[in-house]
Amino acid sequence: MKPIRSNELNYLDTLIHDKFRNRRQNIESEIEAATQKQTDKNYPKFVERLGLKAQIKAFKEASIKLKKFQEQKESYESKLFAAQTNKKIELEQKLQSWASIRGWAGNYGTMEISIKDYDDVSTILSKACKQETKKSVEKLPKFKVKHDLDLLEEQAKNVLYSGRDIKDVWKHLGTTFKASGVPVAAPKEFLQLESK
Question: What pTM did the predictor assign?
Answer without folding.
Answer: 0.61
